[in-house]
Specification:
The structure holds two protein chains of two kinds. Chain A is an alpha/beta fold. Helix content of chain A is about 35%, strand content about 35%. Chain A is built from 14 helices and 16 strands. In chain A, the strands form three sheets. In chain A, strands 1, 2, 3, 4, 5, 6, 8, 9, 10 and 11 form a ten-stranded mixed sheet that branches. Chain A has a four-stranded mixed sheet with strand order 13-14-15-16, sandwiched between helices. A two-stranded antiparallel sheet of chain A has the order 7-12. Classes of the chains: A alpha/beta, B mainly alpha. Chain A: InterPro entries: GerAC_N, Spore_GerAC-like, Spore_GerAC-like_C, Spore_GerAC_C_sf. Chain A: It is a lipid-anchor.
């Protein structure tokens, strides 16, 4: 009796062991919350490998604005650490040694990669690997390339935000909603791009004085994930119209010598592939836009139906021009399909796609041989809150 | 008086309905979209789920029909009356092995997943042991209690699954589902093969129907239960495809968990929804393991006239060692394939053989039925 009771006691004590569960205990104060990462190219090594530099932004809670009043002093709310090495994961572990805290990535918001990195063939894909493989990483982290050094971006701190990484994230979202920039992409999408052989675009940021600007997109070719060129603002707009990745934004048109700004509200684009001859495909892009008059510099009545139609026509022409310009650039010059036509062929013309898959925007490059027709239709819904604000409207005409 | 009702180890057919999806839904769905997307073109995998699902709903119905035609008789008893005692003993033994290896495999997989996503530092062995101890505790108690636990957990599991699906819709892109109907015949066959492994576990109906008070409704209920699992699989697969696209789905180790990781609920409070999802999904896996182990105990109990606790005392270390046997992830996958094929072959063959014999003999002996 006594013996079995002893065994029971021993077993019970043994069971206490798994209950402690202290292996993964981690005090929240000891975690270094990473909110942004930037990757720069240091040098290309002789053996074909690359030396890269990872800059990670950690939150320093003591420096957040709420606590500065209670004696936080002049401490910055963030700390940027840069370490160079050959693999991102090694670097981030190395960083933990410097940071005195263990880097904790699930709250990462943005990744900035410098253009130097993505201009090297295949390097982009190797760098993205760790961000997609590691279980700590979330697939909704936003990604952008930077003109110039990527780490510089993480040092831009405006007065109204505490953390540069949060600032960058807000700028991206804001520019997309109202500024006519392209929709920010997250690394989950990047995995789709990397796995498929198709070409794609990734938005870019750059430092402009004390602020950052979220403008332009880098064009990547699918076969080796190498960036070819960063499109300028107008070309990006044109691209955004074609692939429906723009929301809002403005276009300026001139009607009868007056400058009129139209704020776009809704953009729809309908791409169709016609013809069966793969060496000369006919592609039609029909864009339908809705907008309202945001600003007029003249003094004609916007309630005049004829004038209204003229504005609509001028706006449509402007959109067509923008789109045409982009197409000339990516089809004629860069010869890579970032217009989403390969997706369309895969989705709607699967059988034809099977025969041209390998030669679409590489090899024989059927993409550059195809004809793309652009047409746009702009509908202006509202003239705004007022007809005219200039009193001498009759005298001028 | 009331509690005697609970203690009489009898269940209703509704509990069978919940028990079937409880054991079937487990670790399979976490990786199944990957295998299926890899085998088929674009989103065509749903066809495999629908065809495979229909087949398995039918098989489940057949299994329950067979068991229900011998009301309140244990598997060993009615199997002996059909195919002589020695053969019945062998069959019982084969089916109990299914329960053992199924729970061993599931225990290992959940330990691996929990380590990957939740406990970074804790050794797999410890996670698995802790998990198994809880399962053993559940199994050592009342069998009817286990069924009631299923009834309690299942709605929670369905709710979390629906939540993940609804919140993912924000990332859902219908373009990702195109083109449709482009998979070759062999692709569909392969899809059927990989998805069918996610349906194993319905063999429990062979044993548990004996506990049902009025087994006449059991076949229908078991089939409905299986349909729930099929429906959930279908939803998860389509949402994974719509969110990730075919290529990404085919390359994510656990697409369903990544789905929970991808979603972001505004407000920041649930920024890491994946940990909530995993924690609740462990309940689903707990059900699977507990039912698997319990059916093994139940089967062996009918063979050896010893106490349930003693059987469990021998089985638990066995389950633990089988589960810990694979050395790395690839070996775990191999074990999974073995468990899947073993269970499928054993359950389907046993059912079909017994059904045919009962039909032949049924005309003569079971005249009353």
């Amino acid at each position: 009796m006594g013996k079995s009771r002893g065994i029971c006691l021993l077993l019970t004590l043994g069971l206490l062991m798994p209950l402690t569960s202290c292996w993964d205990r981690m005090e929240i104060e000891e975690r270094g919350f990473a909110v942004g990462s930037a990757i720069d190219l240091v040098e290309k090594l002789d053996n074909g490998e690359y030396k890269i530099m990872l800059t990670t932004q950690f939150v320093v809670p003591a420096g957040m604005s709420a606590s500065t009043q209670s004696g936080g002093g002049n401490q910055e709310p963030f700390m940027n650490l840069s370490v160079s090495g050959e693999s991102v994961f090694d670097i981030s572990r190395e960083m933990s040694k410097l940071a005195s805290r263990e880097a904790y990535y699930p709250h990462l918001k943005v990744i900035i990669i410098s253009e130097e990195v993505v201009e090297e063939p295949d390097l982009f894909a190797s760098i993205m690997d760790v961000f997609l493989r590691d279980h700590e990483m979330r697939r909704s982290v936003k990604l952008s390339i930077s003109k110039g050094e990527a780490k510089e971006v993480l040092y831009i701190k405006p007065d109204n935000e505490d953390l540069p990484a949060m600032y960058i994230k807000s700028v991206m979202e804001n520019s997309y909603k109202t500024g006519g920039s392209i929709e920010p992409i997250h690394i989950g999408e990047v995995q789709e791009y990397l796995l498929s052989n198709r070409s794609y675009v990734i938005p870019s940021v750059f430092v402009a004085g004390d602020n950052i600007k979220y403008e332009g997109v880098g064009v990547f070719q699918g076969k080796n994930n190498q960036m070819l060129e960063i499109l300028n603002n107008d070309e990006t707009k044109g691209l955004g119209f074609i692939i429906e990745k723009i929301k809002g934004g403005t276009i300026k048109v001139e009607v009868g010598g007056d400058l009129i700004t139209i704020e776009l509200a809704d953009i729809k684009s309908n791409i169709k592939v016609e013809g069966k001859d793969k060496e000369n495909l006919k592609i039609s892009v029909k864009m339908e836009l809705e907008g309202k008059i945001a600003e007029t510099f003249g003094n004609k009545s916007v309630l005049d139906r004829n004038y209204f139609t003229k504005i609509e026509e001028a706006a449509a022409k402007k959109v067509e021009e923008l789109a045409q310009q982009t197409i000339e650039k990516v089809q004629g010059e860069l010869k890579v399909d970032v217009l989403g036509i390969s997706d369309l062929l895969y989705q709607r013309h699967y059988d034809m796609w099977q025969t041209i898959e390998g030669d679409w925007d590489q090899g024989a490059n059927y993409f550059s041989q195809s004809t793309i027709n652009v047409s746009a239709d702009v509908k202006i819904e509202k003239p705004g809150a007022t007809d005219n604000i200039n009193s001498n409207q009759n005298g001028d005409q | 008086m009331k509690w005697f009702d609970y203690a009489d180890e009898k269940i209703s057919d509704k509990e069978i309905m919940i028990a079937v999806p409880s054991i079937v839904i487990g670790v399979g769905i976490l990786s199944m979209p990957r295998e299926l997307a890899g085998a088929t073109t674009s989103s065509d995998g749903w066809i495999s789920i629908v065809i495979g699902g229909t087949i398995f709903v039918f098989i489940t119905w057949m299994v329950a029909k067979l068991a229900a035609s011998f009301p309140n008789q244990q598997f060993l008893t009615y199997a002996s009356s059909l195919v002589t005692k020695p053969v019945a003993v062998v069959l019982t033994f084969l089916l109990s092995v299914q329960g053992i290896i199924l729970s061993a495999y599931v225990m290992r997989v959940i330990a691996e997943i929990a380590k990957e996503y939740l406990f970074d530092e804790t050794p797999v062995e410890v996670i698995a042991l802790t998990f198994l101890l809880v399962v053993v505790y559940a199994v050592s108690g009342s069998r009817a209690g286990l069924f009631r636990l299923n009834m309690m957990f299942f709605p929670i599991i369905v709710i979390i699954a629906v939540l993940v699906i609804v919140f993912s819709l924000g990332w859902f892109n219908t373009e990702n589902l195109l083109p449709v109907f482009k998979t070759s015949f062999s692709g569909h066959l392969q899809g059927l093969q990989v998805s069918s492994l996610s349906y194993i576990g319905f063999g429990i109906v062979l044993f548990y129907t004996a506990l049902v008070k009025q087994p006449a409704g059991a076949p229908r209920m078991a089939a409905i239960g299986m349909s729930m699992a099929v429906g959930l699989y279908l939803l998860f697969f389509i949402v994974c495809l719509g969110v990730f696209g075919n290529l990404s789905t085919a390359n994510l180790i656990y697409p369903t968990i990544e789905l929970a990781k991808e979603i972001e609920i505004p407000g920041g409070f649930f920024e890491r929804f994946d940990s909530v999802f995993l924690t609740i999904w462990i309940m689903a896996i707990f059900n699977t393991t507990a039912m698997g182990l319990d059916v093994a105990v139940f089967a062996l109990n009918s063979l050896f006239n010893v106490k349930k606790a003693k059987i469990l005392f021998v089985l638990s270390p066995l389950v633990y060692f089988i589960g810990m046997f694979p050395k790395n992830f690839n070996e775990v996958v191999t074990l999974g394939a073995f468990v899947g094929y073993y269970s499928l072959i054993v359950t389907v063959i046993v059912t079909i053989v017994l059904l045919i014999i009962s039909k032949i003999k049924g005309g003569k002996k079971n005249g009353k039925k």
